[in-house]
Specification:
Rossmann fold; Four Helix Bundle (Hemerythrin (Met), subunit A); 3 domains; Gyrase A, domain 2; 7-stranded mixed sheet; single chain; 17% strand
Amino acid sequence: MSIIFLNLHLFMTQNEDTICAIITPPGIGAVSVIRVSGPKAIEIGNKIFFGKSKLKDVASYTIHYGSLEQNIDNVLVSVFRSPNSYTGEDSIEISYHGSSLISKKILELLISNQARLAEPGEFTKRAFLNGKLDLLQAEAVAEIIQSRSDTALFRSKKQLDGFLSKKIDTIKNYLVEAMGLIELELDFVEEDLQFLDKSQLVQKIETIIGHIEEILSTYKTGKYIFDGVNTVIVGRPNVGKSSILNRILKDDRAIVSDIPGTTRDVIKEEIVINGTLFRLYDTAGLRDSNDKIEEEGVKRAKNLISKADLVFFVTDIENSDDRLDKYFRESLDAKTIIKLINKKDLLSVQTLDVEKNSVLVSALTGDGFEDLFEKFNEFIETNKIYTEDSSIISNIRQFNSLKAAVDSLKNAINSLESNQSGEFVALDMRKAINHMKELTGEITSDDVLNAIFSKFCIGK
């Protein structure tokens, strides 16, 4: 069974059902909304809704006031006729007073009238299968819902609007054009006619690789935007790590004590700085200890350091440990390390030679924290988190598809340069095209779709 047939089979199976789910957040509120989508959506609504007009007779994009069967509640029902709805199917949305009891009663009423509860992400999945969204845009829907910062929201909206999809389509067109030249020559292989200038074709493919690698290079930035910047605060005991965390957050989040080893587990908090999410981790003081609990805390701290994007290495003016400093700089060459020299308030003269990537601060008074926040901003600028480029990839699926396309194109170049048969070149070019189609969902499998949409919330 081909992949395309699998998708068609999935589409036909799902399209037979009418689904329903609450699409507003759970809990008690002023208003809740239930969406119903599928071939019987308007028919079911017409049966259970009582207003001035029958829903089967009303126009699309209209809202109607009335009550529901069993007098459950007074409601507003919005009608969306296929294909002009979110899912591309006939849909209605029922707005009612935000009671969990009313929600339960309406869902039971819908199910008793041949609707079924939607699976996680099933509305968006249907939108994809009905051609309302491509797979990149569908992933953007989930990212918008999960956005924790202004930058993530802005980038997700750009992807939903199709900026990345358009760039991928342009690259696919370049690939199809190059593939056409190869296939033309294959059609006349028996006549021994040559249409291709191999050096020009290699140049074309290298240009396409350059376009794809340009998008691939945004993956790290995309991770920072959508997942946040993992920022780990490390150092010896009693240098003020927890006090620095509290000062950054402007909240007494971590317990502060002059007893060494107070922080034994990892304390995790989040803060948005200039539109970018930073995940802050306060860790146990790094030292040798016979205390098993503290030893485990140190182990967890070192594990976090290995996964960090940004490291704040804290010392103080009394206990600057060069050996520990050397350990970090040799072990974390690939990471951004900022040295924080704490307890500035203890300096009798407010002068101290501070090396380039260091900041002199006082967690007690807040002195120097403007310079510390500037280091956050420098990280944002250095990693181009505010870049104007709207074509940013955000997850490993997208990265892997693009990387596989590049690998196939490089194989095609190798085949050309070693004078192999055109069939080998064509095979690699088709693989590259298919990998690009995987990005937007033109070619995909049930397993991939299920993996993507199962991460959505129910109701989306």
